[in-house]
Task: structure prediction
Amino acid sequence: MLLGAQLRRLREGAGVTREAAGWEIRSSESKISRMELGRVGFKERDVADLLTLYGVTAADERESLLRLARDANSPGWWHRYGDVLPSWFQSYLGLEAAAALIRTYEVQFVPGLLQTADYARAVVLLGHRGAPAEEIDRRVGLRMKRQELLRRDDPPQLWAVLDEAALRRPMGGPEVMRGQLDALIEATRAPNVQLQIVPFEAGGHAAASGAFSILRFGDRDLPDIVYIEQLTSAIYLDKRDDLDYYALAMERLCVEAAPPERTPELLTRIRDELYPA
Result:
């Protein structure tokens, strides 16, 4: 996506049409459009030819963009889990790894980036009860591996809003739930994590239709992405009208939710009420 945005900016700056750019790389206007949206792989030779067409001659600038092309074609760590990872979710993992800000709303489960291994196992078993133990372990391992991005040197900001129902729905038994609530209390202390709870007394709210995430990237040329997961697929939205609608829903959720400074208190109350030591 980043390379595509850079190529689009260079093409428009040079006054080159998509049709002319497609002809230059022995392809089509639609191929250029898909490249600029980050929805197709890049051949390094094609990128080099486009840079020449766009008048990019400085060696350092060309090398920087060609390096992006090489990086874009490199498989992510999640490809090692291809046997348990649906193709539509691989796209999300790439976006999640590149995001500077992840805002998510969950009504049924604790967000995957904040789940303990025991809680994750209970969630995985809901949809894969007949799977071999090794497969369950790999699915849980994948979820734990995802969480490493919150601990890397340049972690994204995670702003999660949870419906109280997600915290009261028992998953895996009392010990698992108590451990998960303890982990959420600990997560609120991380400088890059903000957690809010929509209490039952808030009544109906702006996101009653279900869970969703909004991902924002560090480069201003990249649009936000709204991600909505379904049972067997996912929806990715990047049109301005859709983004505005979901951004407004998220803002309203944050207003309707209890303020972040109350989150540890609410988590402790739910933990001690439902899962006393």
